[in-house]
Amino acid sequence: MKPKRVNSSAVFSLRTRTVFGGIFFFLALLLIAGAWTIPFVFESPSILYKFGIDKVFLRTGKVFGVTTATLVFFQILLVSRLKVLDRIFSINRIYTFHRINGITIAILALVHPILILAAENFTLFPFQVRYWPEFLGVGVLVFIVVLVTTANWRLIFGFAYDKWLRFHRLGTLLAIVLMLVHILFVSETFKSGLPRVLVYLAAGINFLLILRLWYRRFFPGNPGKRTFVVSKVEPVGRDAFAVDVRPDDGEVFSYIPGQFAFITPKSTDLPGEEHPFTISSPPSRSDALQFVIRSQGDWTSKINRLKGGEPVFIDGPYGLFSHMVTPGNGPIIMIAGGIGITPMLSMLRYMSDLDDQRRILLIWSNRTREYIVFPEEFENFKRDLQHLKIIHVFTRNPRDGGEKGRLNKTKLERLLERYSRKSEVFICGPFEMMKEINRAIKKIGFSSSRVYKEEFKL
Ligand SMILES: Cc1cc2nc3c(=O)[nH]c(=O)nc-3n(C[C@H](O)[C@H](O)[C@H](O)COP(=O)(O)OP(=O)(O)OC[C@H]3O[C@@H](n4cnc5c(N)ncnc54)[C@H](O)[C@@H]3O)c2cc1C
Prior knowledge:
- Helix content is 46%, strand content 16%.
- It is an alpha/beta fold.
- The protein contains twelve helices and twelve strands.
- The chain has three domains: 8-218, no CATH class; 226-318, Elongation Factor Tu (Ef-tu), domain 3; 323-454, Nucleotide-binding domain of ferredoxin-NADP reductase (FNR) module (Rossmann fold, 3-Layer(aba) Sandwich).
- The longest helix has 28 residues, at 14-41.
- α3 (52-78) runs antiparallel to α5 (91-118), α3 (52-78) runs parallel beside α8 (193-218) and α11 (409-415) packs across α12 (431-443).
- The structure holds flavin-adenine dinucleotide.
């Protein structure tokens, strides 16, 4: 079969991404600024009875309150897997925004009642029924702090990822509903008129986005999630399995090399959880997809139980970690750690299929030689891609040949001595390794605008 070339319109150029990204941030700031005007334009009677510094405290407290609510609105938008946002920022970066936004929300939500109480000389509200919206607000605050704390320091609480995720989703929904009730009843400002309409509108959009996410999760095979069938599961390296799937109907969706997808198997022996994996097959072969999965936890350690003929629902593609999003045909340096090779594998397979003869250096660090996946295929790449050089690094067994020990600045400086500082650099691997390499690579003269990182963590 003739290799299929990916249509370049599948990728937004850097310029388009910068322009759209700028517009998105501008609109977000505009929305926040608009929310800030509400306590000024639609004054509640409580403000009219305050003077001097108390008035400033009360109004600032309200501004903190509306900002918190606006940022909560963005939180749902950010995890809605909207394709347009993925194409502009990449979903990995969007999850980072989600995390930072969550921490900001918790801080603002904590300061909001402190400022309101400061306007009352820190006299606590009496425990009376008429103050129920204020007490509900305290409940929402506790909820937010718990959600943000467990999201960022999950392991301290001994939460397994899948249990935490269920708790986080349900807790967020409950917090939003309670916050909505708090806003609608706590202040005269939101009792009627435009502010109430805006609250309904924001809540409506959020609930539609949540419904969309539920629909995609609970009704597999819907237009967002396509049905595939497992054709083969085979070991390809130590603790690593290649899972080949073919579309149940029609062709594979279009994607670019290096992108990933969320897969949900419907298997008798593997829990039907959704997990993200790089599509290691190249888009030039449109009849099937492949994922290379290393056993790392309770779910991936059961991946070999998946059987041929079982359905797999796939939501994707996502991400921008690809040589196709970089401008031009310049030299490429790929630095992979362990199973972090999968996006590089897809890129190399694609370049090999299309006879893309640019200069490529692959530095691949593994514990020992037996961790290398598809060793023969990588040898064949050296034949097909004439300007490809592969340097193996082994951290555990010095008898395995190649470079020994962990990659650090000294080693990289030597290995990259003859490579242009204008090369595009792709790094994917364990977090600590990526941090060290990212720092080292910049110190030895590569510009951060040409360094692309993919962390296997959302
Ligand atoms: C963009 C991306 C691409 C990836 N590509 C590959 C690949 O090609 N090959 C490969 O072997 N691994 C890949 N991973 C990692 C893979 O998703 C995790 O190893 C796997 O989900 C771990 O699940 P577990 O239950 O076995 O392990 P656990 O011990 O439960 O989880 C280990 C870590 O994996 C992450 N994780 C676990 N479950 C999920 C989930 N449902 N959704 C999101 N993250 C989760 C969490 O950060 C968690 O701390 C990729 C991850 C990402 C984000």
